[in-house]
Amino acid sequence: AQKITQTQPGMFVQEKEAVTLDCTYDTSDQSYGLFWYKQPSSGEMIFLIYQGSYDEQNATEGRYSLNFQKARKSANLVISASQLGDSAMYFCAMREGSGGYQKVTFGIGTKLQVIP
Amino acid sequence: DTGVSQDPRHKITKRGQNVTFRCDPISEHNRLYWYRQTLGQGPEFLTYFQNEAQLEKSRLLSDRFSAERPKGSFSTLEIQRTEQGDSAMYLCASSLAFPGQGTTNEKLFFGSGTQLSVL
């Protein structure tokens, strides 16, 4: 089974509108972390937001928020007030386990295009 | 504050040649990772270092691949006898992790990658 599933290969959003990028995950661990990264055409992966499995509140970072639904194993990224500079690939990722090293697994990404 | 830098940005080589990539992490970061990303996929883990020690390698890392981090600072990734299937973006990331503490929130800082094309 895929550890991280992103089912939207591409999304369009009008500038200034909000958009939700979907992510579901699969793990049997109780302790895990969920991340979203942005990858513009330049190639660099940019950290956006983090949610811990024990965090009761949804994470927020500026215009980014993470809609964490633990029972459904989903961690959707919400971008509010989209800007042209938000056009990029977006990757959901998960780090599992506790103690020692835990590998980070990435989804295949969603390409977001913001329309003026 | 400089980020993670990778060199070169692009590399074109002929099949069978050896190539070496360099990664300079953020200076105080003790962990360094190599990932590979092919078109339409997310990054896939290759290997990681805690200071100068290489602690884990993926099965993706065949014996043609070798990575070093000799002084716990910069790292090199060498691919010997390149094959067309090695064509990919090679990403380096670094992080600051404290042994003994939970690391599920360990944030990776990535470089811009080295795009390898094997002809």
Head-to-tail CA distance between termini of chain A = 38 Å
Report helical residue fraction of chain B: under 10%
Give helix and strand order of chain B, one letter per element, not per position. Answer: EEEEEEEEEEE
- Write down how many β-strands of chain B occur, each being a DSSP E stretch of 2 or more residues: 11
Largest sheet of chain B: 7 strands, mixed
Gyration radius of chain A, rounded = 14 Å
pLDDT averaged over residues of chain B: 91
Percent of residues in helices of chain A comes to under 10%
How far the N terminus sits from the C terminus of chain B, by CA atoms, comes to: 37 Å
Order of helices and strands of chain A: EEEEEEEEEEEE
Low-confidence stretches of chain A: none
Please name the defining characteristics of this protein.
heterodimer; A: 116 residues; mainly beta; 6-stranded mixed β-sheet; 4-stranded antiparallel β-sheet; 0% helix; B: 119 residues; 7-stranded mixed β-sheet; 47% strand
Report what the structure shows.
The complex is a heterodimer of chains A (116) and B (119). Chain A has strands spanning 4-5, 10-14, 19-21, 24-25, 32-39, 46-52, 60-61, 64-69, 74-79, 88-96, 104-106, 110-115. By secondary structure, chain A is mostly beta strands. In chain A, strands 2, 5, 6, 10, 11 and 12 form a 6-stranded mixed β-sheet that branches. In chain A, strands 3-9-8-7 form a 4-stranded antiparallel β-sheet, with no helix packed on it. A two-stranded antiparallel ribbon of chain A has the order 1-4. The N and C termini of chain A lie far apart (38 Å). The mean pLDDT of chain A is 92. Chain B is mostly beta strands. In chain B, a hairpin with a 6-residue loop joins β4 (31-37) and β5 (44-50). Chain B is globular and about 40 Å long. The interface between A and B is medium-sized, with 32 and 27 residues.
